[in-house]
Specification:
The chain is an all-alpha fold. The chain has helices at about 5-20, 25-30, 55-75, 90-110, 125-135, 145-170. It has one domain. The structure holds cytidine-5'-triphosphate and magnesium ion.
Length: about 180
């Protein structure tokens, strides 16, 4: 197999729980905001209404469930030729929670620089969850540099396409 294609498959396999966790709250987000509508010292929302308890909880749950699916796949089939990262529930949970928390931390900074909930912050809106997932996953595994590079390039493209799709399906009000 072409080396680049193999490296892309390895990268997507690794990040899969984060890719599932990140968009899940769009579909299953709730009402109660994490910040309970409280304001920060600057009188602006701490996180804003776009970060809810329900979205956070289910995002982490669904992402971890995606890792469970990968565990079933890797124990059912011989994928040794692909040299994939061994998925575990711990790694899946860290990738999912890192993704969700990365997105929440980004919202905190968006509010501080006066970007209203739902308004776009280019690059960080696309990479927040990836950076969070990398940081959390690095507690238990060494992420290959080529995986990091591939995902930094690929994720904004995948993210953009997914959001345009969600917009067209009327799941999101804005295409970002
Ligand atoms: N969502 C949620 N809980 C989260 C993250 C997201 O409930 N932890 C839901 C919200 O309904 C949110 C939607 O998913 O509006 C889209 O998420 P995102 O684009 O991250 O939030 P925004 O509304 O754009 O807010 P922000 O400007 O703070 O990123
Ligand atoms: Mg948004």
């Amino acid at each position: 197999m072409n080396e680049i294609i193999l490296a892309i498959i390895q990268a997507l396999w690794f990040i899969f729980p984060a890719y599932i966790a990140n968009p899940a709250p769009v579909i299953i987000g709730g009402k109660t905001p994490i910040d309970f509508n409280k304001k920060f010292r600057d009188k602006k929302p701490i996180l804003g209404k776009g970060k809810t308890w329900r979205g956070t909880f289910f995002g982490i749950l669904v992402g971890t469930a995606a890792a469970y699916l990968q565990i079933i796949i890797q124990t059912s089939y011989d994928l040794s030729a692909l040299n994939l990262t061994e998925m575990t529930l711990t790694l899946g949970f860290l990738l999912a929670s890192g993704a969700i928390i990365g997105d929440i931390v980004k919202s905190f900074f968006k509010r501080r620089i006066n970007i209203k909930r739902g308004n776009e912050l280019p690059f960080l809106d696309q990479l927040d969850f990836l950076i969070g997932a990398f940081i959390f996953a690095s507690f238990v595994t060494k992420i290959p540099l080529e995986t990091i590079i591939i995902l930094l390039i690929l994720t904004p493209v995948v993210h953009r396409l997914a959001n345009i799709l969600a917009f067209k399906l009327k799941l999101k009000k804005v295409p970002w």
